[in-house]
Design a protein that fits this description.
Elements: H1 2-10, E1 35-37, E2 43-45, E3 52-57, H2 62-66, H3 68-78, E4 84-89, H4 96-105, E5 110-113, H5 118-123, E6 130-134, E7 140-145, H6 152-165
Parallel strand pairs: 3-4, 4-5
Antiparallel strand pairs: 1-2, 3-6, 6-7
Protein backbone atom coordinates (compact mmCIF):
# COMPACT_ATOMS: atom_id res chain seq x y z
CA UNK A 1 0.00 0.00 0.00
CA UNK A 2 2.86 2.41 0.78
CA UNK A 3 4.27 1.81 -2.70
CA UNK A 4 0.89 2.71 -4.24
CA UNK A 5 0.70 5.87 -2.15
CA UNK A 6 4.22 6.93 -3.16
CA UNK A 7 3.41 6.20 -6.81
CA UNK A 8 0.18 8.17 -6.54
CA UNK A 9 1.98 11.09 -4.95
CA UNK A 10 4.35 11.21 -7.90
CA UNK A 11 1.43 11.57 -10.32
CA UNK A 12 -0.54 14.70 -11.06
CA UNK A 13 -4.00 15.18 -12.51
CA UNK A 14 -3.88 15.75 -16.24
CA UNK A 15 -5.96 18.90 -15.84
CA UNK A 16 -3.96 20.25 -12.88
CA UNK A 17 -1.00 22.60 -13.41
CA UNK A 18 2.35 20.84 -13.61
CA UNK A 19 3.89 20.58 -10.17
CA UNK A 20 0.52 20.96 -8.41
CA UNK A 21 0.41 18.99 -5.16
CA UNK A 22 -1.30 15.62 -5.08
CA UNK A 23 -4.85 15.89 -3.77
CA UNK A 24 -7.36 13.10 -4.25
CA UNK A 25 -10.68 14.31 -5.62
CA UNK A 26 -13.34 15.24 -3.09
CA UNK A 27 -17.11 15.38 -3.23
CA UNK A 28 -18.11 18.62 -4.94
CA UNK A 29 -15.01 18.74 -7.17
CA UNK A 30 -15.37 18.85 -10.93
CA UNK A 31 -14.56 15.39 -12.24
CA UNK A 32 -11.76 15.38 -14.80
CA UNK A 33 -12.59 14.65 -18.41
CA UNK A 34 -12.29 10.92 -19.00
CA UNK A 35 -13.61 8.54 -21.62
CA UNK A 36 -13.62 4.81 -20.87
CA UNK A 37 -13.20 2.47 -23.84
CA UNK A 38 -14.85 -0.86 -23.07
CA UNK A 39 -13.25 -4.18 -23.92
CA UNK A 40 -16.33 -4.96 -26.05
CA UNK A 41 -16.21 -1.68 -27.99
CA UNK A 42 -18.48 0.45 -25.77
CA UNK A 43 -17.44 4.01 -24.95
CA UNK A 44 -18.61 6.09 -21.98
CA UNK A 45 -17.66 9.73 -21.42
CA UNK A 46 -17.72 10.83 -17.78
CA UNK A 47 -19.88 13.90 -17.10
CA UNK A 48 -21.47 13.84 -20.54
CA UNK A 49 -25.20 13.89 -19.88
CA UNK A 50 -25.73 10.85 -17.64
CA UNK A 51 -24.70 9.97 -14.10
CA UNK A 52 -21.74 7.56 -14.10
CA UNK A 53 -20.66 5.19 -11.35
CA UNK A 54 -16.96 4.78 -12.18
CA UNK A 55 -15.05 1.95 -10.53
CA UNK A 56 -11.25 1.64 -10.75
CA UNK A 57 -10.12 -1.94 -10.22
CA UNK A 58 -7.71 -4.73 -11.22
CA UNK A 59 -8.14 -8.46 -11.76
CA UNK A 60 -5.35 -9.22 -9.25
CA UNK A 61 -7.28 -7.38 -6.50
CA UNK A 62 -9.50 -9.77 -4.53
CA UNK A 63 -11.86 -7.12 -3.12
CA UNK A 64 -12.14 -5.60 -6.61
CA UNK A 65 -13.30 -8.91 -8.07
CA UNK A 66 -15.70 -9.46 -5.17
CA UNK A 67 -17.40 -6.07 -5.60
CA UNK A 68 -18.26 -6.76 -9.23
CA UNK A 69 -21.43 -8.43 -7.91
CA UNK A 70 -22.37 -5.20 -6.09
CA UNK A 71 -21.73 -3.20 -9.28
CA UNK A 72 -23.85 -5.64 -11.29
CA UNK A 73 -26.76 -5.24 -8.85
CA UNK A 74 -26.47 -1.44 -9.03
CA UNK A 75 -26.23 -1.53 -12.82
CA UNK A 76 -29.37 -3.65 -13.14
CA UNK A 77 -31.27 -1.44 -10.67
CA UNK A 78 -30.28 1.90 -12.22
CA UNK A 79 -29.67 1.31 -15.96
CA UNK A 80 -33.31 2.03 -16.79
CA UNK A 81 -32.93 5.34 -14.92
CA UNK A 82 -30.04 6.43 -17.14
CA UNK A 83 -27.13 5.62 -14.81
CA UNK A 84 -24.07 4.14 -16.47
CA UNK A 85 -21.82 1.82 -14.48
CA UNK A 86 -18.26 1.59 -15.76
CA UNK A 87 -15.48 -0.55 -14.29
CA UNK A 88 -12.03 0.47 -15.51
CA UNK A 89 -9.32 -2.13 -15.00
CA UNK A 90 -5.78 -0.85 -14.58
CA UNK A 91 -4.23 -4.25 -15.23
CA UNK A 92 -1.01 -4.22 -17.23
CA UNK A 93 -0.96 -5.98 -20.58
CA UNK A 94 -3.22 -6.26 -23.58
CA UNK A 95 -6.52 -6.69 -21.73
CA UNK A 96 -7.16 -10.36 -22.55
CA UNK A 97 -7.34 -11.25 -18.86
CA UNK A 98 -9.79 -8.38 -18.21
CA UNK A 99 -11.96 -9.46 -21.16
CA UNK A 100 -11.97 -13.11 -19.98
CA UNK A 101 -12.98 -12.04 -16.47
CA UNK A 102 -15.80 -9.78 -17.73
CA UNK A 103 -17.09 -12.51 -20.04
CA UNK A 104 -16.90 -15.24 -17.38
CA UNK A 105 -18.78 -13.08 -14.87
CA UNK A 106 -21.31 -11.88 -17.49
CA UNK A 107 -21.01 -8.34 -16.20
CA UNK A 108 -23.98 -6.20 -17.31
CA UNK A 109 -22.03 -2.93 -17.47
CA UNK A 110 -19.15 -1.44 -19.41
CA UNK A 111 -15.80 -2.98 -18.49
CA UNK A 112 -12.86 -0.97 -19.77
CA UNK A 113 -9.12 -1.54 -19.75
CA UNK A 114 -6.68 1.29 -19.04
CA UNK A 115 -3.21 -0.30 -18.83
CA UNK A 116 -1.53 3.12 -18.76
CA UNK A 117 -3.43 4.13 -15.61
CA UNK A 118 -4.83 7.32 -17.13
CA UNK A 119 -7.94 7.01 -14.94
CA UNK A 120 -5.76 6.81 -11.82
CA UNK A 121 -3.78 9.91 -12.80
CA UNK A 122 -6.83 11.96 -13.70
CA UNK A 123 -8.78 11.02 -10.56
CA UNK A 124 -5.65 10.94 -8.38
CA UNK A 125 -6.60 7.49 -7.13
CA UNK A 126 -4.58 6.21 -4.21
CA UNK A 127 -5.26 2.53 -4.85
CA UNK A 128 -7.79 -0.02 -6.03
CA UNK A 129 -10.64 -0.39 -5.70
CA UNK A 130 -11.96 3.16 -5.80
CA UNK A 131 -15.44 4.16 -6.93
CA UNK A 132 -16.70 7.57 -7.97
CA UNK A 133 -20.23 8.76 -8.67
CA UNK A 134 -20.17 11.60 -11.17
CA UNK A 135 -23.28 13.65 -11.99
CA UNK A 136 -24.56 14.16 -15.51
CA UNK A 137 -22.88 17.58 -15.44
CA UNK A 138 -19.51 16.29 -14.22
CA UNK A 139 -19.59 16.98 -10.48
CA UNK A 140 -18.17 14.36 -8.11
CA UNK A 141 -21.11 13.37 -5.90
CA UNK A 142 -19.68 10.44 -3.94
CA UNK A 143 -16.39 8.60 -3.57
CA UNK A 144 -15.46 5.31 -1.95
CA UNK A 145 -11.81 4.47 -1.46
CA UNK A 146 -11.71 0.75 -0.83
CA UNK A 147 -14.36 -1.87 -1.39
CA UNK A 148 -18.05 -1.17 -1.92
CA UNK A 149 -19.21 -3.89 0.44
CA UNK A 150 -21.26 -2.24 3.17
CA UNK A 151 -21.68 1.00 1.21
CA UNK A 152 -24.68 -0.03 -0.91
CA UNK A 153 -27.19 2.18 0.91
CA UNK A 154 -24.95 5.25 0.58
CA UNK A 155 -24.47 4.57 -3.13
CA UNK A 156 -28.21 4.10 -3.68
CA UNK A 157 -29.13 7.27 -1.79
CA UNK A 158 -26.63 9.33 -3.78
CA UNK A 159 -27.69 7.70 -7.06
CA UNK A 160 -31.34 8.53 -6.32
CA UNK A 161 -30.34 12.12 -5.64
CA UNK A 162 -28.25 12.31 -8.85
CA UNK A 163 -31.16 11.01 -10.89
CA UNK A 164 -33.52 13.56 -9.35
CA UNK A 165 -31.01 16.37 -10.13
CA UNK A 166 -30.66 15.31 -13.77
CA UNK A 167 -34.39 15.60 -14.45
Amino acid sequence: MAVLLVAALACSRADAPRGAPFRPLRVGDRAPAYTAHGVNGDTVAVGAGAPVLLNVWATWCTSCREEMTDLAVLSRAYASKGVKVVAVSVDAGDGARVRRFADAERLPFVVAHDPDGEVQRRFQAVGVPETYLISATGTLLWVQRGGLHGAASAVRATLDSAIAMSR
